[in-house]
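Hi W., the uracil complex you wanted:
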Amino acid sequence: MRVVDLIKTKRDGGRLSAGEIGELLRAVTVGAVPDYQGSALLMAIVFRGLDDDELTAWTEGMLRSGEVVDLSSVRGSKVDKHSTGGVGDKVSICLAPLVAACGVRVPMVAGRGLSHTGGTIDKLESIPGFEVNIPIQRFREILSRVGAVLIAQTDEIAPADRKLYALRDVTGTVESIPLIAASIMSKKLAEGIDALVLDVKVGQGAFMKTAAQARRLAQALIGIGQRMGKPTVALLSDMEQPLGLAVGNALEVAEAVEVLEGKGPADLRELTLELGSEMLQLGRGLTHDDSRRELEARLASGAGLEKLRAIVEAQGGDPKVLENGGAGLPQAPEKISLAAPRSGSVRSLNAELVGRAAMLLGAGRETLEDRIDPAVGIVLQRKTGDAVQAGEALATVHGRVKGIGEAMLLLERAYRIEDEPPPSRPLILERIGGSQ
Ligand code: URA
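Structure:
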């Protein structure tokens, strides 16, 4: 194989064979493809795309570049959920324990936040002692004993994706539906799951800004899942504004706990129940309504919260910090309210600007090396459609002196207040795949 020939084939709109793709990705994994050739090929794919066979071969090549976790010794169905990333999205932290409490196992390899979006791993690390770097053997053991486990990507999982993602990040080649789809699915399929539920975010706080783009990504992801024998369903969900009220790591953990206590913001609770219902339909063959009933019963009985406590304990944390509204989690010293400049209704609340304001406080990172401050963030008091009087609080910033002024300015820009509320927008825009 000469990489330059593959680049020329793709550049001219040709197809790469499964053999060529497999060989290429093996060479990428061992560092035998120079970055200039890797980048040129990625750019050709951005413009020319990959057809279904190429996409399957690309995903399989990245999957086989590392270890595929063997979960055959763990009894029961294993189903995971993946979100394409948003602001205030702490669903995994309430969903994984709730679904595990209903008897479906959840082996979750989760990500860190990048840019204005948050990551489950950073949120979980705000729980003192919580370990996210867990060897595969212990991952399997916790999954078997507790029913759910949430860890960071290890070096063994899809190393070709790690290398290519780093290259894409600095060569303007992230924004390609086949490359995104293969990247996500190679990591998820390496977890040893039986089925997968996807939460594809749509809106100004998401990767995919329009429903049409999100639908194309969902279809590419589902197609890979189907061709690889893993039933996959996607919900397209709204990310025009943040999910829930809390944005920032410890604040989001506390809000996820509220949902498991049977409280919490309605949108976060609803999305958790709908994604959970998809997971139970795939994992246990229940109907949508029976799944919802079972999940709601586990919320009401406190079984979901009990399961989260068990996960925290199994992964080295102290579940007591979750009590009394997360009083034992890191707390920011300064709390400053943003007052509404006029009376009216919140016409829109820009999720990306809220995410960037949280980043300025230290809740997110610009580069993978930046350190996160787990305590800081934003709690929204008003969201889209809410009425507000001039001078009332729109949101509270939890921060340290550094960065607060700039964050407040961005947050102010995120709110648009007008006389009339906007037309209501559904939380779940569409369901793709599956049988119902
Ligand atoms: N998330 C991933 O894991 N990969 C991408 O390419 C984009 C988002």
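The chain is about 45% helix and 15% strand.

W.
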